[in-house]
Design a protein that fits this description.
Blueprint (H helix, E strand, L loop, with lengths): L3 H8 L4 E2 L1 E6 L5 E6 L3 E4 L4 E4 L7 H8 L1 E6 L5 H8 L5 H5 E2 L6 E2 L4 E13 L2 E13 L8 E3 L2 E3 L4
Antiparallel strand pairs: 1-11, 2-3, 2-6, 4-5, 5-10, 6-9, 7-8, 9-10, 11-12
The protein binds flavin mononucleotide.
The site of flavin mononucleotide has 15 residues, from strand 3 and helix 2.
Family: Belongs to the non-flavoprotein flavin reductase family.
Pfam families: Flavin_Reduct (PF01613)
Keywords: Oxidoreductase
Length: about 160
């Protein structure tokens, strides 16, 4: 039987990007969660995905909003990442600007505005498919942040 610690350690050898999925709640309160599971899914129709933990308190609020913005972080944004991971007060005012699907974070390498298309069960996570409404890549933001073996890094280019 595979243990979760063993799985986490071994699968951490697979590098991921780091994104902040944001949304705006019905009462106007912004919500944001850090994910390493953002991925492109389909070109036609245009779909992307990410996998929130069933225990996440942010995900039900994002789901209720019905739309979200994926902000793919740049390698230089470790402080931004920690602000959101640690839920530091003032994080939206410091880094965010209003967007149609959720706050857009300045300095991100890519922002993807989505409608929630489908939510599928996936063990102790859920697989969220988002239908892409708009996207904005920012080459000037530089290299993307990479999470690998428990550390933040940048690709060697
Ligand atoms: C680099 C990194 C990647 C993460 N990836 C995910 C992820 O893909 N899915 C997820 O549910 N939580 C992920 N987390 C954990 C969440 O950011 C957060 O801890 C969790 O959602 C609990 O907060 P919440 O209750 O506000 O949702 C990740 C955290 C870090 C630092």
């Amino acid at each position: 039987m595979l243990g979760t610690a063993e799985l986490r350690r071994a699968l951490g050898h697979y590098p991921t990007g780091v994104s902040v999925v944001t949304a705006t709640g019905a009462d106007g309160t912004p919500v944001g969660m850090v994910v390493g599971t953002f991925t492109s899914v389909s070109l036609d129709p245009p779909l992307v995905g990410f996998l929130p933990d069933r225990r996440s308190t942010s995900w039900p609020r994002i789901r209720a909003a019905g739309r979200f913005c994926v902000n793919v972080l740049a390698a230089s944004q470790e402080e931004v990442c920690r602000d959101f991971a640690d839920k530091r007060p003032g994080r939206f005012e410091a880094h965010g600007e209003p967007g149609p699907c959720g706050p857009r974070l300045a300095g991100a390498v890519l922002r993807v505005d989505c409608d929630v298309d489908r939510v599928l069960p996936a063990g102790d996570h859920e697989l969220v498919l988002g239908r892409v409404r708009a996207l904005e890549a920012s080459p000037e933001a530089g290299e993307p942040m990479v999470f690998w073996r428990g550390r933040y890094a940048a690709p060697a280019v």
